[in-house]
Every structure is written in C-alpha cells, then in structure tokens.
Specification:
alpha+beta, single chain, two-stranded antiparallel ribbon, 8 helices, four-stranded antiparallel β-sheet, about 35% helix
C-alpha cells in the first residue's frame, strides 16, 4: 500500500457520533493475490479507524520526544547519575520502549567534554595559588524521526484485511444474492447471560484457563441436555413444551428453561444413621475388669423420728 495506493470503493457511509464529527466512511477493495490457503482477501478501509491510528501514532511520537528531552536535561545537569555511554544508551532505549515509539524514533548519544578549574588548596587565593584543570565527559541525546517509516505506516491506517471463502459476485450463480448476517452461537450467548461469565481479578493465566475450563464443561452439559430433550421430542412427535412463563409454548427448549422448571424440586432428606453395632469380638477379648460395671452407691437413708408420746393420740 505504501508503494501503490489501492482503489477503494465506498461501501457505506454513516453520520458521526457527535454533532460536527465527520462521517464514518467504509470502503472496500479486493486484494490482487489470495491468501496462503487460496481464499479471497478483501481490504476494508474505515475513516474512523484511520483517524484513531494517526492520532495514536502522533501522540506516541510526541510523548517520546518530551521524555527524551527530559532525559537529556538530566544528563546535562551538574549531578547526573549516568556517567557512561552504555548507561545513557540503555536509558534512552528504555524511555522509547516505555512510550512505544521505538519504531519511528532513533536516539543517538553524543559526547562532549567540559573543562573546569578549581582552587587546589583552601584559603584566600594569591600569586602562588594553583588551579588544576578538571575534564568531565557529558552526554547528550539527538532525536531523529524516520519520516519514511511514518509515511509507510500511515499508508495502511484504517485498513482491515478480511478473508472470505465466497467467490466474487461475477463468479456466482446468483450475483444479486446477499450473504446472510453472521449469527452468534448459542453457546456464546449462554456463557455471558446464563453462566454470568465476566472479567475476573485473576492474574495467573493458568487460573484463568482453569476457570473457563469449568465454564466450558458447564456449557457442554447444557448442550447435552438440550440435545437429549430435543431428540426425545422428535421421537415422541412433540412440537412444543409449556416451559415459558404462564405455561406458554416453547418449540426449542433450552437448558436454562429446564433448570427453571425444576427449580422447586428438592431431593428427599437422607435416612438417619443407625447407631453403630457393638463389636462382639472386642467385647469377647476384653478383660473382666474392663467390662464389669462399677458398683452402685448406696443411697443414704433418712432417720425415722418417733412420734412424741405426749402429743400422740391413738385412733379410736
């Protein structure tokens, strides 16, 4: 594309999202050569995507220029911590990598020497005071922007390659027939809505893969339930089931509707556990002292009081 601009044909145009924004234009162009598998390649150009990529590249270059200028000021300061050429090159490379503009910017480290004179001894200077010469190496940074590479990347801004297995319109039997819109798989819909798959705060790739492996197993179980239910309906000649709310008819039951229908079903409580049986063998081999019951304690008897002979009156 940098050598020869393709001839794009406008395919769609939509107004901008905000008032005053330019229109969003989509253009297409067939590629002159197929893919490695032999399929047809169609280049799609988006004006919105082209503006976004151009803005992002310009901002990266500007951030890199400011960061390199700040690094150059620190190298030229009186208390610069970088004192070697290799360290200066490494710092410049790290700055470009942090801004993401190492593709378009090249930094060259330059050297210069500074001579300074300082009094050799303390005290008031006189005729015999000596000022030895001190030479120090300073490093500077020169920025070079590769305009050819910027122009080369700008030529492909907003372009998206699409691979299609359908032949061109002039090779079809019915060229006026439009392709059907892509239908998302039901499993993708269930993963987001039914299983509530959402971004998680896991940082390890192994834990993320393990979590989604559980989701995929759940999706597989749902697909098997739906398959068995629909095959059973086909064998019995049943066209619909009252699975929706208010017992409305459902021609293609899903696992979610089946789970909702059986939500009130509960399993019976488990049987109570029987007390463990005594171990007859252990009781037979036990010692008499271990198996004998402890003797009962005698209950204390209350003293019987005799009636007072003075107040006792026999009956009759």
């Amino acid at each position: 594309m940098a050598r020869e601009a393709p001839q794009f044909t406008e395919a769609a145009r939509r107004p901008g999202k905000r008032k005053g924004d330019p229109d969003s234009v989509w253009s297409v162009c067939p590629a002159p050569f197929p893919s490695s598998e032999g399929h047809r390649i169609v280049w799609v150009h988006s004006s919105v995507k082209a503006r976004c990529e151009e803005t992002a590249r310009t901002e990266r270059i500007q951030r890199a220029r400011l960061a390199i200028a700040d690094l150059g000021q620190r190298l030229a300061g009186p208390r610069a911590r970088i004192s070697s050429r290799v360290a200066a090159e490494q710092a410049a490379a790290a700055t470009l990598a942090a801004t993401g503009a190492q593709r378009w910017i090249t930094v060259t480290v330059s050297e210069r020497t500074e001579d300074s004179f300082r009094q050799q001894k303390r005290g008031r200077p006189g005729r015999e005071t000596r000022y030895p010469k001190t030479t120090k190496t300073r490093y500077g940074l020169d920025i070079h922007i590769d305009a050819d590479r910027v122009r080369h990347d700008a030529a492909s801004d907003g372009c998206i390659p699409l691979i299609s297995q359908r032949p061109p319109a002039h090779r079809r039997r019915n060229p006026h027939r439009l392709p059907l819109p892509a239908q998302p798989r039901e499993a993708h819909h269930q993963l987001k809505s039914v299983h509530d798959a959402a971004p998680v705060t896991l940082h390890s790739p192994h834990r993320i893969e393990a979590l989604f492996a559980c989701h995929f197993i759940a999706l597989l179980c749902c697909c098997l339930i739906e398959r068995q239910l629909r095959q059973a309906m086909a064998r019995k000649g049943i066209t619909e089931l009252p699975l929706y709310h208010e017992d409305r008819a459902c021609t293609a039951p899903t696992a979610d509707r089946v789970f909702d229908h059986f939500a009130d079903v509960q399993a019976p409580p488990p049987h109570p556990r029987r007390p463990p049986r005594p171990d007859v063998r252990a009781a037979a081999h036990a010692t008499p002292a271990a198996t004998a019951r402890p003797p009962r304690r005698a209950r204390p008897r209350l003293p019987q009081h005799d009636p007072d002979p003075l107040t006792f009156t026999p009956a009759g």
